[in-house]
């Protein structure tokens, strides 16, 4: 299967490397016509405003929206998550264009500036249930967004505890205040809704390829064409027989 990685800016090379480790062909996508030859798409992390300007320059937004509407698997990490959200708050003056499709309200740069980036362990039972391995994963948050509110059809895969005063210092509008009341001191950092996967962190910057494996197995239930199931017995897998390989510059 051919998987596209939007290659306008950001960590697309790291996603391409993770796909190679799983024996999957990655295609760098920069033009609308290239979306026609792929079966799934990853929108990487990066600088969301810059990526939006480049996507607009290359007239990619209409084609990206069509791709999502076709029910093909799409995964947005960090900035990619912002793109896929139906609503984004905390944007720069003038805002930015979104692809949409994910019934969420995302706060851009919720966790602060570059120097406030961090790593932490996230509890991910649903990922472990499908992909095996530990029930936690390493979350690398770099100028990261957070999901403040998710619709009823959105499955939460991971959340992260934050003090309520932190929530109140970042968000202010009425909808966000409602999200605070429902949050129980947590923000959402990984979700799935049908054919869309979103993570506020960067799995491609770790040795754990389970998120990529999970994404490759996603199918649209109503589509007769299913994606080929990934063979996790492949020795390139970093979890083959419990052994882990380190062939990338990664953060541990």
UniProtKB/TrEMBL annotation:
Its EC number is 3.5.1.2. It comes from the Eukaryota. Transmembrane segments: none annotated. GO terms for biological process: pyridoxal phosphate biosynthetic process; pyridoxine metabolic process. PROSITE patterns: GATASE_TYPE_1, PDXT_SNO_1, PDXT_SNO_2. It catalyses: L-glutamine + H2O = L-glutamate + NH4(+). One of its GO terms (molecular function) is glutaminase activity. Coiled coil: none annotated. Belongs to the glutaminase PdxT/SNO family. PANTHER family: PYRIDOXAL 5'-PHOSPHATE SYNTHASE SUBUNIT SNO, PYRIDOXAL 5'-PHOSPHATE SYNTHASE SUBUNIT SNO1-RELATED. HAMAP family: PdxT. This is glutaminase. It comes from Dendrobium nobile. The lineage of its organism: Eukaryota, Viridiplantae, Streptophyta, Embryophyta, Tracheophyta.
């Amino acid at each position: 299967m051919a998987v596209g990685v939007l290659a306008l800016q950001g960590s697309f090379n790291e996603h391409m490397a993770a796909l190679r480790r799983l024996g999957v062909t990655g295609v760098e996508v920069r033009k609308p016509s290239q979306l026609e030859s792929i079966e799934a798409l990853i929108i990487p992390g990066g600088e969301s405003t810059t990526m939006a300007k480049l996507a607009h320059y290359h007239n990619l937004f209409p084609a990206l929206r069509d791709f999502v509407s076709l029910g093909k698997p799409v995964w947005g990490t960090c900035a990619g998550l912002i793109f896929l959200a139906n609503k984004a708050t905390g944007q720069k003056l003038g805002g930015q264009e979104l692809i949409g499709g994910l019934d969420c309200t995302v706060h851009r740069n919720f966790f602060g500036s570059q120097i406030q980036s961090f790593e932490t362990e996230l509890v991910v039972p649903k990922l472990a249930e499908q992909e095996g391995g530990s029930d936690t994963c390493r979350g690398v948050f770099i100028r990261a967004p957070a999901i403040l509110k998710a619709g009823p059809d959105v499955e939460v895969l991971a959340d992260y505890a934050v003090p309520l005063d932190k929530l109140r210092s970042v968000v202010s509008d009425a909808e966000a205040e409602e999200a605070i009341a429902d949050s129980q001191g947590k923000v959402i950092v990984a979700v799935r809704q049908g054919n869309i996967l979103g993570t506020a962190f960067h799995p491609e910057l770790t040795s754990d390829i389970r998120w990529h494996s999970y994404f490759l197995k996603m199918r649209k239930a109503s589509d007769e064409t299913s994606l080929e199931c990934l063979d996790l017995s492949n020795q390139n897998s970093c979890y083959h027989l419990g052994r882990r390989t380190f062939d990338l510059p990664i953060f541990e």
